[in-house]
DNA sequence: ATGGACCTTTCCACGATGGGAAGGTCAAGG
DNA sequence: CCTTGACCTTCCCATCGTGGAAAGGTCCAT
């Protein structure tokens, strides 16, 4: 990569990033995609994105397509998709003959998982709010919140009547 | 610990757990508290709970108070409290002269954090549901969900008119 | 005395992210 | 030409809470 020169290439020519193809180093790709350089490298090591070409100085070089893939990942992360799902979404995205049904199924699965987590958190919140309501919340030490956390007191006689 | 014997103790006496004090090894404490043995050891290493006494064979020995503390932690975890908050809750619990106001403040802070996370997840969920609604979800490949993830297409002229 | 259930420590892994060190490279300006 | 500062590279470590597994010691019942 990095251009096929007809004359003998100078050192600068070899190490520079080719503006012809809109290639840029990782920092710029990070800014353009909203994904940190750290994460871009990480996504590469776990195989979420394909390794990009390197400059003569071993710098990663990103073209517009690579940057768009990173942006795709970034937005997917922001919507809470797991790495695993993102990997599948990326595959669908790049598959010209995908069915939108497959994409929708993934999205709805994620919605379901989000709803599950929301319900869990709401259950926690409601439980805490419930006991907190009954806590006078003043200088006194007795506290239904701590009683709730302590759990059912162990019957001293072992439960026998 | 493990009893002060008046006569010369036999080896069995030294290694056995004292039933007088209701002391038990970690497995039983785990069953009794609902916290895994693994986690009990972890809580000890991070200083969340005080190291318990050991038998002559170096086995951890839990009494009723220790088990109740573990149960307290387990229930707090189940309500989503962070280790840090649990540490403060434990301190309040064991503080005879606490103010219930302090407990309530912690609880309400946690409620606020839960609400924040719930709102985040709900935002994600709503965004996905919104685009998913517009996806026909059939054999065709064009898909507003992927369009959303892809993000705003880069203007080919760089945004200039 | 043997076997199986238990205990001990230590190390590794996850998912996703950040921090930092040590060393190479690039571009601009003196 | 050389320096400087911004950038790149790899590698290691930490997070948080949990689990798994290895390697070795103990306990108890048969």
Textual characterization of the structure:
Two copies of one chain form a homodimer. Chain A has 161 residues and is mostly helical. Chain A has a domain at 9-98: Multidrug-efflux Transporter Regulator, Chain: A, Domain 2 (Orthogonal Bundle), CATH 1.10.1660.10. Chain A has helices at residues 11-15, 26-33, 37-45, 64-78, 83-94, 100-133, 144-150. The longest helix of chain A has 34 residues, at 100-133. Chain A starts with 10 loop residues before the first helix and ends in an 11-residue tail after the last helix. Chain A binds a DNA duplex (30 and 30 nucleotides) through helix 3.
If interface size is counted as residues with C-beta under 8 Å from the partner's C-beta, which chains form the largest one? A-B, 55 and 55 residues
Helix fraction of chain A?
A: 55-70%
- Output the CATH topology of one domain in chain A: Multidrug-efflux Transporter Regulator, Chain: A, Domain 2
CATH architecture of one domain in chain A, by name, is Orthogonal Bundle
Into which percentage range does the β-strand content of chain A fall? under 5%
- Report the span from N to C terminus of chain A: 84 Å
Order of helices and strands of chain A: HHHHHHH
Number of helices of chain A: 7
Radius of gyration of chain A: 27 Å
Query: What value does the average pLDDT of chain A take?
Result: 84
Q: What does the main sheet of chain A amount to?
A: none
In terms of quaternary structure, the protein is homodimer
Shape of chain A: elongated
Q: What structural category characterises the helix and strand content of chain A?
A: mainly alpha
Tell me how many strands of chain A there are: 0
CATH class of one domain in chain A reads Mainly Alpha
């Amino acid at each position: 990569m990095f251009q096929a020169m007809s004359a003998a290439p100078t050192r600068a020519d070899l190490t520079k990033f080719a503006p012809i193809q809109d290639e840029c180093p990782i920092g710029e790709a990070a800014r353009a995609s909203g994904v940190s350089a750290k994460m871009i490298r990480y996504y590469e090591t776990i195989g979420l994105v394909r390794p990009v070409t390197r400059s003569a100085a071993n710098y990663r070089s990103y073209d517009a397509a690579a940057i768009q893939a990173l942006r795709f990942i970034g937005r997917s992360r922001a919507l809470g998709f797991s790495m695993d799902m993102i990997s599948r979404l990326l595959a669908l995205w790049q598959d010209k003959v995908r069915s939108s049904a497959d994409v929708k199924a993934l999205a709805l699965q994620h919605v379901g998982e989000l709803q599950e987590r929301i319900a869990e958190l709401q259950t926690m919140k409601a439980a805490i709010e419930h006991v907190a309501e009954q806590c006078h919340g003043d200088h006194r030490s007795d506290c239904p919140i701590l009683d709730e956390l302590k759990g059912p007191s162990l019957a001293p006689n072992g439960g026998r009547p």
